[in-house]
Design goal:
The protein is α/β, with parallel strands linked by helices and about 425 residues long. The chain folds into two domains: about 5-370, no CATH class; about 375-420, no CATH class. Helices cover about 25% and strands about 40% of the residues. The chain contains nine helices and 20 strands. It has helices spanning about 5-15, 25-35, 55, 70-75, 125-130, 135-145, 370-380, 385-400, 405-420, and strands at about 60, 85-90, 95, 105-110, 145-150, 160-165, 170-180, 185-195, 200-210, 215-225, 230-240, 245-250, 255-265, 270-275, 285-295, 300-310, 315-320, 330-340, 345-355, 360-370. The strands form two sheets. Strands 1, 4, 5, 7, 9, 11, 13, 15, 17 and 19 form a ten-stranded mixed β-sheet that branches. Strands 3-2-6-8-10-12-14-16-18-20 form a ten-stranded mixed β-sheet, covered by helices on one side. It is globular and about 70 Å long.
């Protein structure tokens, strides 16, 4: 039975088994999935991102949390969690109170209304359309058990969010929705991890929403470092004079697709995305970014780097969209890649779409192999070939790691990368 057939045949049983609410809204959204089906390589957004894993594995939808404490504790201890951190753990989209710590400066809301979305407030039609046309977003809206909301309402300790997936004996399919709101004038850091505590394979279909209010100063560190199949729809909305640094590190993962949609909806916004992805084996890591400037006097910058090893594949598809009212926009985009082997591949497509006439915008992409001159320079000084390659790759990755201002996280990342390259 195909993945689509499994969902169609079991949809009503799933609604009843897990006592889901919003039944009519879920059914309406699911009918759209039934009609459209799963994306294929004819779809421009999926042209280089095959989802063969959905056809090669039988995934069973798991909504109730069955957290393997032994596995969870081990993987949590191997992750970097800052001292004095609020910790919010969610298992299969359900809040795991026993594995969470709230120091009192963050509010958590849980409700059944999964159809109250940040995208409803996007002023830009292209941004809304991009999300509403995403079939995995529709699946999430149909099958996510709860809507979880974290409200950071004052300058707080760091907040660590652990999105755990767990099952029993079968390959698990998990849908999870989380909304994070940072209040006016708040300065904070957020750390996000995806952990697989199942002994079998796990497919996580995640919806993350960030609402960054006026003059908030936010640093987000997203670390994808487990052998998951992950589709990650990330929606951000920034308001007046807010400042965002979004760091995304895709270190391990059988299949990762991050689609980041950021809507700059007021003046004076600063928005920076730094990314590093390191696929190996037959891994696929795909980063899609849509950065929309809707108002004047805003700055955005995207810098993503990839190191493709073995037979892995990397994809970067980024667009800067500048609307006609967004004069004095300052926007940049850069994607650089190294292919370690001849069997590795990268597909990169940076793009600008500009409707204002007083802007500074640029984009660029480079891909290639390690330079023979650099290797020769190192080997001629007595350094072995493999060690020389490793030194060059670490130097390449370090440009992104150096953007991290949390020193202990920087050290943790360097140790992880030491193992991977």
């Amino acid at each position: 039975m195909s993945f689509k057939e499994y969902l169609i045949n079991n949809f009503e049983n799933i609604l009843a088994k897990y006592n889901f609410q919003n039944l009519e809204e879920r059914r309406t959204t699911f009918k759209e999935f039934e009609k459209e089906g799963l994306p294929n390589l004819k779809n421009e957004d999926w042209k280089y991102t095959p989802i063969n894993f959905l056809y090669n594995n039988d995934f069973e939808l798991i909504a109730n949390p069955q957290l393997d404490i032994t596995s969870f504790t081990k993987k949590k201890s191997n992750s970097y969690i800052p001292e004095n951190s609020n910790i919010f753990t969610f298992c299969n989209g359900i809040f795991a109170e026993n594995e969470s710590i709230n120091l009192g400066d963050v509010k958590l809301e849980i409700n059944d209304d999964i159809f109250n979305n940040i995208s409803d407030n996007f002023p830009d039609g292209q941004m809304k359309a991009s999300l509403n046309n995403d079939i995995f977003y529709k699946i999430n809206q149909s099958l996510a058990p709860k809507s979880n909301k974290i409200n950071i309402v004052s300058n707080s300790n760091p907040t660590t969010i652990i999105l755990a997936a767990s099952g029993e004996t079968s390959n698990s399919f998990v849908n999870s929705k989380l909304h994070i709101s940072v209040d006016k004038n708040v300065e904070t850091s957020i750390f996000i991890y995806y952990l697989n505590t199942n002994q079998k394979k796990v497919f996580i279909n995640q919806l993350l929403e960030f609402e960054i209010k006026e003059n908030a100063q936010v640093k987000i560190y997203m670390i994808e470092n487990d052998d998951n199949y992950l589709i990650n729809n990330i929606s951000l909305q920034q308001l007046k004079d807010s400042n965002l640094q979004f760091h995304i590190f895709s270190l391990r993962g059988n299949f990762i697709r991050n689609f980041i949609r950021n809507s700059l909806d007021a003046t004076g916004i600063q928005s920076v995305i730094y990314g590093l992805y390191l696929p190996n084996g037959n891994d696929i890591i795909d980063n899609h970014i849509l950065m929309t400037h809707n108002k004047p006097n805003c700055h955005s910058n995207q810098q993503l780097k990839g190191i493709m090893q073995d037979k892995s594949r990397g994809i970067f598809n980024g667009k800067i969209l500048v609307q006609k009212d967004a004069q004095k926009t300052d926007a940049y985009q850069s994607n650089k890649n190294i292919l370690v082997t001849k069997d590795a591949s990268i597909y990169t497509k940076p793009a600008l779409e500009i409707y204002a006439d007083d802007v500074k915008c640029s984009h660029g992409a480079t891909s290639g192999f390690l330079q023979e001159e650099e290797l020769f320079y190192l080997t001629s000084r007595g350094i072995g070939v493999e060690e020389s390659k490793s030194l060059l790759l670490k130097a390449f990755a370090n440009e992104i790691i150096e953007k991290v201002t949390e020193e202990n996280l920087k050290l943790w990342l360097q140790k992880e990368i030491e193992i991977l390259i």
